[in-house]
Every structure is written in C-alpha cells, then in structure tokens.
Amino acid sequence: MKKFLKIAVTVIAVLLVVVLTAPIFLRGKIAELVRTEANAMLVPRLDFERLGISLLRHFPNASLELKGVTLVGVAPFEGDTIASVGRLSVVVDPWSLLGDGGLEVRKLLIAKPDLRARKLADGSVNWLLMKPSEEEPEAEAAAEEESTDTGSAFSLSVRDFRITDAALSYVDDSTHTSFRTLLPLLRLRGDFSAAQSTLDLRMRTEETTFSSGVVTLLSNAEIELNADVAADLEKNRFELKENKLRLNAIEATLDGWAELGDDAVAMDLSLGCERVEFKDVLSLIPAFYTRNYRGLSASGELTLSLWAKGELRGAELPAFGLELGVRNGGFQYASLPKAVSDINIQASVTNPGGVMDRTVVDIPTFGLRMGDNSLAATFHGTTLVSDPDLRASLEGKLDLADIGEVYPLEDGMSLKGFIQADLSAAGRMSDVENRRYDRVSASGNFVVENVDAQLPGLPAIGLRRAAAGISPQAMTLGELSLTIGGSDLAANGQLTDYIDYLLRGATLSGRLYVNSKLLDLNEILASLSSTETAEGDAAEESAAEEAPAGGDAAAQAVEIPRNLNLSLRTEVGKLLYEKMVIEQLSGEVRVANGTLSLDGLRMKAFDGSLTASGSYSTGDAAHPALAFNLGFTDASYARTFEQLEMVQRIVPLFEKAGGVYSMSLDMKMNLDQAMEPDLMSLDAQGELRSADIHIEQLKAFEVLAKTLGNDALSSIRAKDVVIPFSIRQGRLTTKPFDLKMGDVSLNLSGSTGLDQSIDYTAQVALPASATGGVLSKVNVGIGGTFTDPKITIGVKEAVEEAARNLIDEQVQKLTGNESLSEAVQEQAAKLREEARKAGEKLIAAAEEQRTKLVDAAKNPIAKLAAEKAGDKLVDEARKQADKLTAEAEAQIEKLASKAQ
Question: What is the 3-state secondary structure (H, E, C) of 889-900?
C-alpha cells in the first residue's frame, strides 16, 4: 500500500510539474502559430505583445490570454489601427475536449478595447476582416450542410461575458456622419448552447456623441440598458422581458420581439415612457444638460411613443412611427429673472412600411414665448427621398437681450438687438430644380437691427441693420451694415437657387456688392485663432479619440466650396493683413467651382499702386494652388521688403535698396495645409524696371569695390534699369542687365537661392582714369551669400587685355615711321653708330613708359596688368632695337655690293 501511495504521489507530482511548465515551454510556439494562422485568414494585420496559457488560474478550467492585441489596416487604411485590446481572456472547460459535445467556452473577458470603424467617401470600409475563401461555393455549402447535420463541435455556454473600459467610434465620410462613445461596462450572461435561454444584458455608455453633417444630434449623452431577453436560439427569436432604458434623464421601457431570418429581420417593437417630465426632454439638448441642469425647473405635459412593426429586408423597411407632444411646457433657471413659457409642440414621423420615401414628417405646431417675444413654426414633408414636397413657415420676434435673462450665458458674453422674421415656403423640389416657380410659393422678410454682441475671445460685433426678402426665384439682401472690432462691412445683392442650395446642397448663384472703409484681417484672424486654440486645448483629448489612428490632425487650408457661383463687386478703403497695408482696393471677386478668382483688382500698396488678376483653387485641398498676374507701379523697395516675407527670403537686397520700381509678374505656386507658401513650387517670370535705384551697404559690392580699388562700386546708383527675371526651383535668376554708376558700367546676371546663396557674373567696365588706360573691363564672379560674399577676379583675362592695349599703343608711339637717313648710309661706321643709338633710345623710352604706367595704375588689378604689359613693352623695344641693327647691317652690305 505504501508503495502504491508513493507511486501515486510521484505521478501526481509529475503531472503538476507538466501542468505548470508545459504552457511556459510551449508559449512561444503557440503564439507564433496563432499569429500565422490568424493573419492567413484576416485582411488586416494581427499582432499581440504576449500570449499566456494557464491550467491553474481558472482551475478547473483552462484559460488563454492575449495582451496588447492590435489589428492594423492595409490599403486604403494603411497604418490605421482598426482595433486594439488591452487584454483578451478566454476560459474553457478542458473536460469538454474529451467528450463529443465540442469545446465549451465558459468566460470571455475583454478589457480596454478600442474599436474604430471607418467608411471612406468612395464606399470602402475597414471592417471587412476576413479574406475571401479559396473553397468553391459548392464545397462551402456542402461543408455547412454537413456541419448542420452532424452538430457543432463548438459549444458556447458563456457564464460571464464582459467588456470593460471600451471606446467605440464610427466615421462615415460618404454621409459626413460620426458616432463616438465610451463603454465602461457591457456584460452578457446566458447559455448559448441551449435551444432556449434567458440572456441577461447590462450596458452603460458615457460621452455618447452622434453627428450628421454639421448637426450634432446627440452630445456627451449617457445611455444605460438593463434587459432580460428570452432567446429561442433555434429560431433566432429574441423577446424582451423586464428591461429599463435610460437616455440622460429620460427613462423608458422596450417591449416586443425580433426574429433573425436568413435575409430579413422580423420585428414588433415599441418604446414606452411611464412618466416623462419636460425637464427630462431638455436633457437631450446639450446646451441644457451640460449647463447648470440641476438649477433648471420645468413644467408641462409630454407624450412620447416609438414603434416598429414588420420586416427589415435590404432597403425595405418595417412600418414605424414616432410621435412627440409637449403641452404648456416651460422652464426657468433659478438664478435668472425670466422664463420660457407656452411651449407647445406636436411632431410625428410615420412610415406605413416599404421604402424610406414613404416617410412623412409633420410638425403642425411648434411655438414658445420668451418674455415679450414669441416664436411659431410649422413643417410638413413627404417623398423626402425621391422628390421632397415641403411646406414650412416661421414667424416671430426676438429681443436678444432676453436670451441672457432666460439662459445662463458664458462669462464675458452679452447680446443686444432685435430679430424679426415672417417667412413661408411650399413646393416640390423638382419644380425648384426645373425653375417652375409658378408652382412654388415663397415669401416673407427677415430683419435684424441694432445688434451688439460681445463674445469671448472675439472683437465686438455690431449689426446696425440687415434686411432680406424671399421669393421663389431669389433671396434679396436689401441691406447689411456690420462692424467687427475696428472693421466695417456693408453689402447688398441677390442670391438665386437658394432653396435648392439649402435643401440639397445645389449650386448657389448670385451677385453681391461689398463695401468697407476698414477691413482689419489681423484683428479678426487673431481673435479666431485664439478662440480655436482655446477650444482645441479643451477638446484635445476628445478629438484625439475621435480621429482615426494614423490620421493627420494638421490644420486644413481654407477650402472654396464647389457649390457656389458668386460674383462680388468689392470696394475697400483700407485693408490690413499681416504687415501689408492696402488702400483703395476695388475690383471683381468671383467664387465658382472651388476657385476664388480676382479680375482686374486695383489697389494702392507698398507706397505705389498694384493691379492683380488670378485665382486661388482648392481642387486639391491639401495643396491649394495660386496663379496670379501682378503689376506694380512706382512701388517702394523698402516698403515691399518690410511687408512681404516672401520678398525677404527671395530678394533680400530689397532691404538695402532705395527708390521706386515697377514690375510685371506672372506666377504660379502651391500652398501647404497651413496656408503657408511652398516656395519650392513657385514658378514665375517677370521684369523689374526702375528709373532711379540706389543700394547702400550691400556687402557684396563693398567687397567688389575694395578688390578693384574703386569706391564708385561700393554703392549702386543707377537710372533706367531693366531687369528680366524668373523664379524656379527656389532660385531667382536674372538675365544679363546693365547698371551705370557714374563713370563705371556693369553688366550683371546670375541667381539667388532661398538659402540666401548667390551666384552672379559681372563684367565691370572701368574708366581710363582708374586704370591709367591699361584696362577697359574686368570679369568678376560673385558667390557665397549676401552676408558673406566671395569675389573672384578674372586676372588672366585682365592681364592679356592690358598687354594687348599697351603694346599696340606704345609701340606705335615709339617707332612711328622713323627710318635711317640716306646721309647715314654713306658711311658704314656712322650707320652702325646711328642704329645703336636709335635702339638704345627705343629701349630707354619703353622702360620709362613702363614706370609711368605702373605709377598711374590706381588699383591692384590695374597695377598688376601695367607691370605685365610694361614688361612686354620693353621686350618689344629690344626686338625693335635688334631689328634696327639688322637693317643697318643690311644697308652696309648693300653699299659694299654697289661699291664693287
């Protein structure tokens, strides 16, 4: 017996060692196997930090745990994290491996999941996770049928299914819809392996936001659902039992059932509210629920019902209805003197079943009073998808000062002024689109007067009067008089196709006349920027969660809408933008097809005048394109440099230049998303003309003057200068142009880079007084940068030219037409003596001339050239002396020959 116990203990010990150590030794191989097999089936890439296997943690059950799970998309979602999970635990019954019932899952625990669904404008979605099966459809069907006949080898009996600290988001670029929520807890219990089971569902969400277009329908809402669901898993039928649904402060119950078919969902569902106070309804409005909601008292009767009955099959909808009624509603904040009263609303949305186009929206009553103000509106719409048939009206008046007496405004905000509206419209969209205005009615007026608005972070806004009237054909702006800080704006004009634009986003056409005495864009843009920065800091965490992983959160350039076709006749007395001061601006501005065009704009700028035509296009919103034709007349170099950063980078010598210039410029350039110029994309050509230019303290010319020993070159003072130029690949290149500076002439050409590098070639023509007549011109290379120029002189060419000039001139002077006289020829001795004396005289004169040339040279280059030329002159004199001696000997031979 003892021996048996000893063996048993040994066997148990060995088994325990195996149980404890096997997961450790096998973990790496299993993890790699999971990665390989999963990525073979999935479209996105699956990865995880750690895989753990334990037979003891949930004993007697086994567990598999993954930590740091990520699912990363591929094109067109390359680099986007579709899902991430902090920890995923699956607990199974190991004894189910030994039976015929299949693997039984007891628990599924998911901690800190972050799921991000995305649909692009082209319809691509990131939730198609599985790769297409390589099996033939017939084989798949046969395998499915066999699985059905033989029973599943996988039994899901979830004792505890929990999701904790989850974040869910959905962004649809095609419909401009977004949804985001935090899910602190989702728990589901039930036996999914049984034919029938009761499912226990507990769910709570926070910060739930839903937006469609520019309208936020739900903002930072709380949703809670506790429900018992009777599930018939054989028929896929689910019936709601005891349950409670809470949306912010509204509590409701869900009743009915839903049955999942192969291609349809049958349902009979309804939502009921036992007791709904009007204050609970206000909780759905973010402006009320997030601002002193507890200090809000409300009264009134509310009825709410929602139901759906029938089948949801593809685009075919079940019958559904929503009815909302408010009778004698009102609310008041305890800290404020006035209340909003007489709130009466009747609204319904119904569909008898079928297609969405059969939906009818009817709001026959919507009205309220706010102090002495009243507002009433109606709306009715049918065939909203195919051809909307709409009828609407709005009538009321509002004293803006009363808003602050019924609703707590932000600190630093105040409102004054009056708004009055009396508008009505009715008709079918097809009649509007086809301009059958006789079948459409639209009339009324909208007036805003004496508005004074103080908004945090913004300049004071004043609106003396704005008046508009409508007809089926057009909306007429009779008057608009607006001030923003120190800026003013007046406008009038007419807009056509406004109904189609408001309802369907069709193209809005029109013509407006805009006038302003002062438009200070610096004040306006600085205020907007500071406001956006403050809001961005406050919502940074929220925005980071909402943005898709890997997305670019950089600022976007101002995009010109494609559905505008507007002409604006503009007159601005003074416009301030960055450092520019523009006056007497006038011309035509046109907005069409995503492009803003300028036609014949005229203005005073840079102490001169400027004309501009061109365009700003956002066909590629990430790289807006500029194309302009500019003409400058009598503009100041100094003012241009002070006010234009682009000139500071490309033409820094404007800083040293005085005088005025005129210029023609054709240019094309892209901007980045922050509206900053991409100077490497700048492609321009033009011509600069200046009747009188003077440039002082330009280091490159100071070094040149010192090198050539001519102070006239240290500063440029020239008249009637014409400089053709081009700008490409970040370099400004000038064609050869002439400068006349006193008695010095200069021909210059080359280029300047964005890095301030310079590469110029100059041909300097120096006066005879500066070189002693030795040189007429010098070739100079100017490199380096404007602040550290490098000067190179063409010494070899200068010496060769000086030598040629001196020899040609001086030899002619020294030799002239001089020859030996006949008297000398009579006697050979006298002939040789005369030849010797003449040769010595020639050499002496050459040496004397050399000394004078060197002494007369006033700069190092001229002196060097004089020395070299003088040396050649003496050599030439010696050659001429030898020639005289040779001629004398020739004459002696000739005399001797005759004497014989």
Answer: HHHHHHHHHHHC
What would the pLDDT profile of 607-647 be if each residue is shown by its tens digit? 999 999 999 998 887 788 999 999 999 999 999 999 988 88
End-to-end Cα distance, the chain: 165
Half-sphere exposure of residue 324, counting CA atoms within 13 Å on the CB side?
A: 15
The model carries a pTM of 0.64
Distance CA 495, CA 536 (A): 34
Collapsing DSSP to helix, strand or coil, 334 comes out as: coil
**Listed residue (642, 782, 626) closest to 651, CA to CA:** 642
Ordered DSSP codes for 530-567 = HHHHHHHHHTHHHHHHHSPTT---PPPPPPPPTTEEEE
- Region of residue 543 (left: phi > 0; alpha: psi -120 to 50; beta: else): alpha
Task: Tell me which DSSP letter residue 363 carries.
Answer: E
The tokens for 186 are 């989702």
Contact 687, 675 (CB under 8 A): no
Please report the beta strands in 696-820, taking only residues with DSSP state E, as ranges in sequence order.
Answer: 716-728, 731-741, 744-753, 758-765, 777-784, 789-793
Print burial letters for 375-386: b (CB count within 10 Å at least 16), e (below 16).
bebbeebbbbee
Tokens 């009320």 -> residue: 288
- Does an H or E element contain 345, and which? strand 340-351
Residue 576 has pLDDT above 50, yes or no: yes
CB within 8 Å of 459: residues ≥ 6 apart: 484, 485, 486, 487, 523, 524, 527
Under 8 Å between Cβ of 89 and 65:
yes
The Cα–Cα gap between 716 and 737 comes to 14
Cis amide leading into 318 (omega within 30): no
Return d(Cα 200, Cα 809) in angstroms, integer. Answer: 117
Runs of H (alpha helix) within 284-428 = 286-289, 403-406
pLDDT tops 50 at residue 225: yes
Using H for helix, E for strand and C for coil, what is the string for 409-435? CCCCCEEEEEEEEEEEEEEEHHHHHCC
- Burial degree of 674 (CB within 10 A; 0-12, 13-18, 19+): exposed
CA distance 765 to 775: 8
Who's near 538: CB < 8 A, 6+ residues apart?
A: none
Torsion of CA 227, 233, 237, 241, to 10 degrees: -20
One DSSP character per residue, 437-450 reads GGG-EEEEEEEEEE
Give the integer Cα–Cα distance in Å for 330 and 367.
Answer: 11
d(CA 230, CA 476): 61
Cβ distance 71 to 100 under 8 Å? no
To which residue do tokens 């194309």 refer? Answer: 627
Q: Is the pLDDT of residue 237 over 90?
A: yes
Q: What is the CA radius of gyration of the chain?
A: 46
Q: What is the pLDDT of residues 288-331, one digit of tens each?
A: 766 667 778 888 888 888 999 999 987 789 999 999 888 888 98
Contact 291, 285 (CB under 8 A): no
Which is nearest to 776 in space by CA: 745, 750, 752, 751? 745
Q: Which of 790, 710, 716, 712 is nearest to 750 (CA)?
A: 790
What's the token pair of residue 709?
Answer: 């020993």
Name the H helices within 780-859: 795-815, 822-825, 828-856
| Cβ–Cβ < 8 Å for 613, 599 | yes
| Relative orientation angle of helices 828-856 and 795-815, to the nearest 10 degrees | 140
- More reliable by pLDDT, 812 or 160: 160
CB 656 within 8 A of CB 715: no
Tens of pLDDT, residue by residue over 725-771, are 999 988 899 999 888 776 778 888 999 888 888 898 888 877 666 55
From the list 839, 824, 823, the residue with the least C-alpha distance to 874 is 839
